[in-house]
Design a protein that fits this description.
The complex is a heterodimer.
Chain A: H1 8-13, E1 37-43, H2 47-50, H3 54-65, E2 69-75, H4 79-88, E3 106-110, H5 117-127, E4 142-146, E5 162-164, H6 172-184, H7 189-196, E6 202-203, E7 208-212, E8 218-223, E9 232-233, E10 261-264, E11 266-267, H8 277-281, E12 286-287, H9 290-304, E13 308-312, H10 322-336, E14 339-341, H11 349-358, E15 366-371, H12 375-380, H13 387-399, E16 404-411, H14 418-438, E17 449-456, H15 473-488, E18 496-500, H16 504-513, H17 519-528, H18 542-551, H19 557-560, E19 575-576, H20 581-592
Chain B: E1 2-9, H1 18-31, E2 48-50, E3 59-68, H2 75-83, E4 90-97, H3 105-108, E5 111-118, H4 126-135, E6 140-144, E7 149-153, E8 158-163, H5 169-177, E9 187-192, H6 201-211, E10 220-231, E11 234-237
Parallel strand pairs in B: 3-10
Antiparallel strand pairs in B: 1-3, 1-4, 2-3, 5-9, 5-10, 6-7, 8-9, 10-11
The chains are: A alpha/beta, B alpha+beta.
Bound molecules: iron/sulfur cluster.
Chain lengths: 621, 242
Amino acid sequence: MRELALSDDILMQIEKPARYIGLEINSIMKDITPDTLRFCMCFPDVYEIGMSHLGIQILYDMFNSFEDTYCERVYSPWPDLDKIMREKDIPLFALESQDPVKDFDFLGITLQYEMCYTNILQILDLAKIPIFSKDRTEDDPIVIGGGPCSYNPEPIAEFFDMFYIGEGETRYRELLDLYKEDKKNGVSRADFLHHAAKVPGIYVPSLYDVEYNEDGTIKRFFPLFDDIPATIRKEVEEDLSHTYYPTKPVIPFIKATQDRLTLEIMRGCTRGCRFCQAGQLYRPIRERDIEVLKKYAIELMDNTGHEEICLSSLSSSDYTGLYDLLGFLIDECTKRKVNISLPSLRIDSFSLDVMNKVQDVKKTSLTFAAEAGSQRLRNVINKGLTEEVILDGAKLAFEGGWNKVKFYFMLGLPTETNEDIEGIGELCNKVAAVYYETVPKSQRNGRVSITASTSFFIPKPFTAFQWSRMCSLEEFRDKAFTTRQGIIKTLNQKSIKYIWHDTDVSVLEGIFARGDRKVSKAIYKAYQKGSFFDAWNEFFIFQNWLDSFEECGIDYKFYIDRERDLAEILPWDFIDIGVTKNFLKKEYLKAQRGETTVNCKEKCQMCGASVYGSGKFCFYK
Amino acid sequence: MKLRIKFSKIGPLKFIGHLDILRYFQKAVKRADIDIKYTEGFSPHQIMSFAFPMGIGLEGLAEYFDIEANSYDSLEKMKEDLDAQMAYGMHIEDIILLPDDAENAMASVQAAGYVIRFKDTLPFDIDKAISDYNTKDEILFTKKTKKSEKTSDIKPFIYEICKATELPTGILDDIKDKGLTLSDDDLYVLVNASSSGNLNPKEAVKCLYELENAEYSENFNLLRTDLYTIEDDDFISLGAKR
Ligand code: SF4
């Protein structure tokens, strides 16, 4: 029988021991032989968060479908267990076999958000794998990163042996085969990395070097060998209907943060919001065939017994077969007593009708991602949502019985003025007024409730705003204050609730998002000072970071408080996502002029993503 | 129709708490395609009620929950289907059809049996401790909670204390079947588990330590062997067929 890595005594002492024992329904048990390729997949955050993530499930399913490979999982041990593992010198272990992570061939770490960077170091440290790639030996696993943050891998480049840039479905088999072959031939770690650097989509940071200008900007980024590519092109799965899909996902015993099934209906987004990184990274738009989706939905429900299923994509309203698919799901799910949770659909009579069928109107709220308070600023960010559409949608919803509305806004967008910010209160006020005009007194179920929630804008690589200056802490706080003042001034202010979150963490996210290789020193330093779980308010210590930057001689403002020159070499320029820098430049300039760009569905803008086949709306010559 | 499902939980899954076991069974029942009854209303849920929650760390040979079903082919098939959905260390032991007017599992529970498997040698002689216990008419015991301390006679809440190896062979076989081994020091206690007088088995163990003037340590594994209802002074298992 497999033994647990942790003793009963330890498991009884810690919070939620179920995080560490594995054995979940649909988790995979395989026999391990000396030839088994062992891949440990890590989500560097706590179990409940990691288990909510579809990407990991896709890769877990894919790797385990390979006969010669056994893929297991590991998540960040919560600080209570972290402490015990260090005290008792217990090495980090994978959930399935409970074997030390260090014994694996590969450790794959998914990079979903910047604030998990210190947790990567925790994982390596607990696993007893040297933190820096250069210090690793033949006995250590190959540490490979992937996911959205790998599109600017430079701040964490020194901790990884390689990055997989793009969608995981396409090149892992090739990489594993290369590994097997090299291992059989006794090829050294260094040579394997060199070979791997020739596999499309694979970036091996140690084989590239950077030279800087005196002002700290990049002078030159170049490969150290002639036989590896100077730019790395992202990998794209061109046929979503015939690839891996986890229809038997692992079901955690404890409640995951997203406690439901996920049906990914498409990748990419037709809209070209200029602040949105995902919208560019996942171009071109590819849909999954509706019949395939119906089949997956049934299998998912049969194989899990889950109570809820959720459609996932960046803009589900644009999915061609949405009407059909939802009709099918409503029938099947009603029969099986499964709830459907809807992605943020555009509010119109169709979506309201669907929501009416699947949700309790009284309990749910409608969501508008307006992002900016004024039309002018919505044009700047190319958010194709007008006041008219919002007010019409709200009216329809109020007629349908809803009385809760949520708005999401961003503060600190390029060109923003106080008037734009005050527009937030004004828009909320108008929506409240629509309620009182639409719903007669006798039918009102109390006051209308409007929530305005703001986050701080963080410029991201591969967006039109990748050159933009990010606001400082003080500016952000002033803007939040102005927002609140603006709301208080309005007639219906009593119906409007304002929520905003603190700013420190946004600053750090801003630094990491557009950081270069120099930043890695500070990440290591902050980790040594005890920083980890930075995504968790209760563990985030901003002062640690300020001290670390200072001690490393890094002026962190260089990464945020600066409009970049269009000619500057950006740290992520060596990655090619299909969408060209030229296209982004045009978008940046159009934004300054307040000009909008129509979405892919109306007219292809020749962004460059058509270098990949299968873009649903792309213009192919 | 009302059905009672008897299951066991041995091994690492003892670290899954009660609420999670509940969610686990809700899903398992769906996967096994059992035609369970749902409540009415906007978000219907399965009609399912557990006899007695299992705290984290507790293993069980005979745990129960009741469901209401609309239909079924055969209980044997249902048992097989549901058992096929179990995670490692859990088994469906039996499914029993209850009379329509049967009391629900939770209300029926009045006593629970526990085997206490010590990890180290005991600091006292177990035979002596049991006989000391049996000769006393009254044992004053102080229960400490976060808020208060209460001293009272613990004996009325303990129905039986004996060595685990002296249990009837049926239970001993069950224990052995699950791969668990008993040593000569291991203990069995049958305690009050009713809503009014529920006694934590650990307190019964603590009481023996106090009786023998030994320093208490919680160095044992707890295994619940069965749950009982009391009728005319007889302890009747919740899994008894009637
Ligand atoms: S090539 Fe055209 S349609 Fe395709 S993603 Fe780019 S802009 Fe959209």
